[in-house]
From TrEMBL:
Location of the Carrier domain: 3-84
Lineage: Bacteria, Bacillati, Actinomycetota, Actinomycetes, Kitasatosporales
Gene3D superfamilies recorded: ACP-like (1.10.1200.10)
SUPFAM superfamilies associated with the record: ACP-like
Protein name: Acyl carrier protein
Pfam families, alphabetized: PP-binding (PF00550)
InterPro entries the UniProt entry points to: ACP-like_sf, PP-bd_ACP
Length: 84
């Protein structure tokens, strides 16, 4: 099972939350809060939903509570690797 990349997360943020962020921004400042980037809890829920649809794997409940893109990627990728 492939890991979620910053590029994929950036695309999901645009698709599910309507927030445009470059992968470079996410890599340079991985601990910038989703709230600072403009992603609210509903947007994050949308991102989680998109991932579940794409990968056919339930995401951890805590995914929608992540505060930063880095925290989100760590959690989601650990889950995907465990399910592989």
């Amino acid at each position: 099972m492939p890991q979620i990349t910053v590029e994929e997360l950036a695309a999901l943020m645009k698709k599910a939350a309507g927030v445009t962020v470059s992968p470079e921004q996410l890599m340079e400042k991985p601990d910038t809060g989703f709230d600072v980037l403009g992603v609210d809890s509903l947007g994050l829920l949308g991102i989680v939903g998109e991932l579940e649809n794409t990968h056919g794997t339930p995401m951890p409940v805590d995914a929608e509570r992540c505060k930063t893109p880095q925290q989100f990627l760590n959690l989601v990728n650990t889950t995907l690797m465990a399910g592989a």
